[in-house]
């Protein structure tokens, strides 16, 4: 069978894979994206696009389309601990960009896919497809892949954007050792209320609870909650929402009463296990990883999708230098790891410190960092934290 030569094979088409495909595609490279799921995936809970992620989309010319697809510009978040206001994060003061954007990750991903489909015939998007066989020319250097539809591809570089259970990471022989938290996250959508329309409000409770209220789309409230596993199960078992409303009132201020009143049915809450890791090795041979395949961060930071987008921006420009003959592939991939590993690790550690200190007001307040929360990437901030 004829082997199809391509520049980059991207395994997995979440937000990281989609942005990387767009970035490489607009530079003219031949890209194939292999995604096991169908084009439309379920919502995954990520809604906060912060300045560091916005910057990458802006550099790629995708910011106007992000806003046109319903991205909602916001400036402030109030953070409460045990019902008392602990901090107001005002992006106009903490970051040059001055705002963040609320947009479900899945809507953002579909927008990027539309841009690829309408502009970039050199990028092939293959849904409901998997790699079934891999041939190596030398250790860690993939020369050919066979796909479940029978196609054979001959890629120069293989990128694993395939999430927490990454197959490319397994091909690289790298362990993840992801620590899974005892408090899963649940999220659901309710009608928009005045308090939610006004401002994002994040509530933390010393009994290891979390509730975050913010708007999505034009007329909806997203409520993200997190409680110790058994407690969450008990609260959600009462499908009338009464048990959950009562528990929320123990640490959510009266400013959000109108939003709590909307919680009258718990059956739509979707649960997601959450974990924390930043693996040591991001690449080997002609394989490289990005996004949740290399790191997962506690969602209290609201930065996993941002980190995946930033990884994609960084990797695409280094691969461009490689394809232009300016640097070798090992140099490009080493530079990628050198730039991204400390940032990803810093955010993962920051999220872990926050997640481990809910029970202690002083400790949580000391760990909370406005700049890191706002996706500041100055290395001095990570060192100081
Ligand atoms: C509750 C919750 C709330 C969150 N909130 C935020 C937030 O507000 N802001 C934020 O920035 N981040 C947030 N995150 C994190 C964010 O959702 C993720 O970090 C981000 O979506 C990861 O993107 P990714 O592209 O790396 O991986 P994924 O989205 O996991 O994509 C991986 C893709 O690879 C595919 N795949 C896997 N294996 C294979 C295979 N063998 N072959 C082919 N395809 C494969 C999968 O089907 C999937 O489509 C949150 C996470 C959770 C759990």
UniProtKB/TrEMBL annotation:
Signal peptide (UniProt feature, chain positions): none
Superkingdom, natural source: Bacteria
NCBIfam families assigned: PRK07045.1
Listed InterPro entries: FAD-bd, FAD/NAD-bd_sf, PheA/TfdB_FAD_monoxygenase
Gene3D superfamilies: D-Amino Acid Oxidase, subunit A, domain 2 (3.30.9.10), FAD/NAD(P)-binding domain (3.50.50.60)
Keywords: Monooxygenase, Oxidoreductase
GO molecular function annotations of the record: 3-(3-hydroxyphenyl)propionate hydroxylase activity; FAD binding
Any Gene Ontology biological process: 3-(3-hydroxy)phenylpropionate catabolic process
Pfam families: FAD_binding_3 (PF01494)
Domain FAD-binding: 6-348
Protein name per the record: HQNO biosynthesis monooxygenase PqsL
